[in-house]
C-alpha cells in the first residue's frame, strides 16, 4: 500500500477538522533553522567533529564529562544566533488560536518553546533543566546555560558533583514516552515533521496513531505505509506557508516568536 500524496490545502482541511492534533518533530525541523545535523551525510556523528561515544554515551560522560560540555558550549553558541522557523511558529500559532496541539520532539534545541509552543514533550531531553548527579538538585535552563558558558564542567552549588543537563544520552531512557503514546493514540491527526522515522522508540509512534497520519519530510522515511497515511516530500517552511494561507493564518507570516531563553 503506497503513501497518499497530500497538498498544503488538503493538510489544512485535515487540521481544520481535527479535534486533537499530535506533532512528532525530528531533525529536519531543526536543521532548517540552522541547527547542526547529527546523523545526516555531513552530520556531527559522520564527520566525527564530535565523538558520540565520548559526548553522548552515559558511560563516557560518567568517566569524563568534559567532551559533552565542550560540545554543549559550541551547540549553545550556535543556538544563540538562531530563530525558530516558520514551521515552528505555525505550530505555536495553531495552539495559540485554540487548537488542541501537543508537540512531541526528538530535538534538544528548545526551538518549539522559543517559538511559543506550550505543550512540548522533548523525548531526548533538552537544556531547559539540569540535575546534580549526586544530590539531585534541579537547575533551571538559564542557570545551567550560564554554568556551561562560565566553567569547564558545571558543578553543584550544594555538594560539588557534576550537574548534567536533562539531555538524554545513549544508555538512558527517553523522556515522556507514556505521554507521547497517549497523545498520539488519542489524536485525530498526527503530523510527522522533519523526521525520517528511523530512530526508535519515536519511529514507532505513528503505529499508535488514533487518526490519520501526515508526514512532511524531505527524503525517504523508514516506515512502510499502513492504513491511511499521507506523505509530502517537501520543504517544511514552504509547505506550511501554504497550509497557513489555506487556513487564513496570515499573522504567522509577520509575527516574531517570543524569546524565552
Per DSSP, the total helix count is: 11
How many angstroms does the end-to-end distance come to?
A: 44 Å
Number of E-state strands? 10
Major sheet summary line: 7 strands, parallel
Report strand %.
15-25%
Structural class: alpha/beta
Report mean pLDDT, rounded to a whole number: 91
Strand order of the largest sheet: 1-10-9-8-2-3-4
Order of helices and strands: EHEHHHHHHEHEEEHEHEEEH
Task: Please tell me about this protein's structure.
This protein is of the alpha/beta class and 261 residues long. The chain is 35% helix and 18% strand. The chain is built from eleven helices and ten strands. The strands form two sheets. A seven-stranded parallel sheet has the order 1-10-9-8-2-3-4, sandwiched between helices. Strands 6-5-7 form a three-stranded antiparallel sheet. Strand 5 and strand 6 form a beta hairpin. Helix 1 crosses helix 11. The longest helix has 15 residues. The radius of gyration is 19 Å and the shape is globular. The termini are far apart. The mean pLDDT is 91.
Keywords, please?
single chain, 261 residues, alpha/beta, 7-stranded parallel beta sheet, 18% strand
Write the layout of secondary structure elements.
Blueprint: E1 4-5, H1 8-17, E2 20-25, H2 27-31, H3 44-47, H4 52-55, H5 58-63, H6 66-80, H7 86-96, E3 100-105, H8 111-115, E4 120-122, E5 125-132, E6 138-140, H9 141-150, E7 163-167, H10 177-185, E8 189-193, E9 212-216, E10 229-232, H11 236-247
Helix pairs in contact: 1-11
